[in-house]
Amino acid sequence: MSVTQQDMQTFAPKLLLVRHTGALLMWFQQSYYFQGEPEKLQPQVNAVTLKNLLFGWWSIVSLFVNPFVTISNLVRFSNYKKEYQRYITSPEQYVFEAKERHESGADARKRRSDRITMTVCIVLLIVAFLVTIGIILDS
Predict the structure, then answer these.
(1) Are 18 and 73 in contact (CB under 8 A)?
(2) What is the structure's pLDDT at 4?
(3) Which residues touch 53 (CB under 8 Å, ≥6 apart)?
């Protein structure tokens, strides 16, 4: 098992947080990557979550997207804490396994699958919203 110092930096666990901002007829998302001890990242998670809760609701699409983004951030942070614990326990083994997943393409397939799932959920919520609005307007 050969793991270089560059591999240790490249394949160490990373936390992705998404900040979602609604703006009447449009919305914006910004992605942030963090590395380090989960306890030290908690303030960043809290800040992004607070911004999502305060500014993420101000468009029609955001009413549906923002809850998913906010919950996804919290789930990612929970998973990051587990991954970080595995990394601290055995850094070389963790990096070796992460490097193998990357080289086999498993990481890319997982990200693609996650994007498809998120898109389907958002479309279903928008359809449900439009159907509900249609029922309300008809009555």
Answers:
(1) yes
(2) 80
(3) 70
* Helix, strand, or coil (residue 22): strand
pLDDT of residue 106: 59
Give the separation between CA 62 and CA 89, rounded to whole angstroms.
Answer: 40
Backbone angles phi, psi at 12, to 5 degrees: -65, 155
- Which residue intervals of 29-105 are DSSP H helices? 38-55, 60-89, 91-104
Q: Which secondary-structure segment (H or E) carries 15?
A: strand 15-23
Angle, CA of 64, 68 and 72, to the nearest 5°: 170
**Quick one: tokens of 117?**
């799932």
Residue 108 confidence (pLDDT): 62
pTM beyond cutoff 0.85: no
Q: Given this model, what pLDDT does residue 32 score?
A: 93
Low-confidence ranges of the chain (pLDDT < 50): none
Measured in whole angstroms, how far is the alpha carbon of residue 110 from the centre of its chain?
Answer: 13
What span, in angstroms and rounded, lies between the C-alpha atoms of 29 and 73?
13
